Amino acid sequence: MAPERTRILIAGGGYVGMYTALRLQKKLRRELREKTVEIVVVDPRSYMTYQPFLPEAAAGSLEPRHVVVPLRRVLKRCEVLTGRVESVDHSRRVARIAPKRGAPYDLSYEVIVIASGSIARTLPIPGLAELGIGFKQVEEAIALRNQVLDKMDIATTITDHAARRSLLTFVFVGGGYAGIEALAELEDMANYATRYYPELSKGDLRFVLVEATDRILPEVGEDLGKYTVEELRKRRIDVRLNTRLESCVGGHIVLSDGEEFDAETLVWTAGVKANPMNTHTDLPVDDKGRLSCKADLRVEGIEGAWGAGDGSAVPDLTGPPGALCSPSAQHAVRQAKVLGDNIVRVLHGRTPSAYIHKHVGSVASLGLHKGVAQVYGIKLRGFPAWFMHRTYHVSRVPTLNRKIRVVLDWTLALFFSRDVVSLGSLQRPREEFSEATR
């Protein structure tokens, strides 16, 4: 049986954090009711973001609220703290919590789950911090959608050709899932929106993809990657392979192939890295800052500490010796369920089981009714791949509530035209009032 009182601290409320907490809620109902176990989830946001739907939220195919899951609503038997785990001293079983407001404080625990996930992997490129925008959170998706439409609005009001060209040039750096799906969905949306802008044509828009390697979407295979490049180029998207972003100071884009041009929008999706929080603990990490974990998701050589997801190096038992699980939602969700079960097993004096899951494949959307997929060795493209993308992800989005809302959004889209209104002013709610008080 569990000890007299066990506090389980979950550092992070993303895929791993939320799904682990859900599993523990289900498996430890009696202990939670009797208050012999306490589950505390700490995350800077009060919601979990289902990232595969961010491109559709950015393009207006989905309501942004429907791609996030409120933690307090689904984790009713847990305590949810909106803040950040700054550091962990596992030798003392104490974590340092930094709340949204107020001084940091120490929180003791018996068991900790490091589910801090990953952050954007950036490079010291001049101008990137000032111009770039990421694509990992729902607020970034909303801001990017507003920015694209705002730039189109402004472009209709000016006659300076160079300034207009800069406004209507959109640069995406990174040819992985996030970059390709965001680029494809937003290009699709922008082209659709031109029907409402008599002053603009599809030819006025310029979308540029910058990828440092010689291929995109490596997860779906070389042939589907080449197919994707061909399809993007057919849509007049400027795909630059084997090319790096050298500088973007003041919106002046300089590429390694010698090309230079101006752009007011730059989206950075060039990979992720483990959350730096991992290095502010006394737990073992590898050379990439990932938590060193065993196949049963316990931290290597440490009792009472667990890890999973993008920020953890978890052995892939279905791959060759030394292989690690890839940083994907597919692994994170499944690892979280095993992790929750294993914590319960250890609390009840049983042996934890190893995480074993063979990657079933990958799907990617390339805009409305377009996509690529490789699942169980079967390769699909076009509408069938797009349909599989939607079917798979709606089955994986957490809670029945969100599944229904997503399906309703898609159903309504069959009967009504796409929503292409910009709500950029939402980011400046006090602007008009402030001007009125002057």
Low-confidence stretches: none
Query: Helical proportion?
Result: 25-40%
| Percentage of residues in DSSP E strands | 15-25%
Broad shape: globular
Describe what you observe in this structure.
The protein has 438 residues and is α/β, with parallel strands linked by helices. The chain has helices at 15-27, 29-33, 54-59, 71-74, 128-131, 138-155, 161-167, 177-193, 222-234, 329-347, 383-396, 400-415, 431-436, and strands at 6-11, 37-43, 47-49, 68-70, 79-89, 94-99, 105-108, 111-114, 118-120, 132-133, 169-173, 206-210, 238-240, 245-247, 252-255, 260-262, 265-268, 272-274, 291-292, 305-307, 312-313, 361-365, 371-375, 378-381. Strands 7-6-5-2-1-8-20 form a 7-stranded mixed beta sheet. It has a 5-stranded parallel beta sheet with strand order 10-17-11-12-13. A hairpin with a 4-residue loop joins strand 5 and strand 6 (94-99). It starts with 5 loop residues before the first strand and ends with a helix. The mean pLDDT is 90.
Q: What's the layout of helices and strands?
A:
Elements: E1 6-11, H1 15-27, H2 29-33, E2 37-43, E3 47-49, H3 54-59, E4 68-70, H4 71-74, E5 79-89, E6 94-99, E7 105-108, E8 111-114, E9 118-120, H5 128-131, E10 132-133, H6 138-155, H7 161-167, E11 169-173, H8 177-193, E12 206-210, H9 222-234, E13 238-240, E14 245-247, E15 252-255, E16 260-262, E17 265-268, E18 272-274, E19 291-292, E20 305-307, E21 312-313, H10 329-347, E22 361-365, E23 371-375, E24 378-381, H11 383-396, H12 400-415, H13 431-436
Parallel strand pairs: 1-2, 1-8, 2-5, 8-20, 10-17, 11-12, 11-17, 12-13, 19-21
Antiparallel strand pairs: 3-4, 5-6, 6-7, 9-18, 14-15, 15-16, 22-23, 23-24
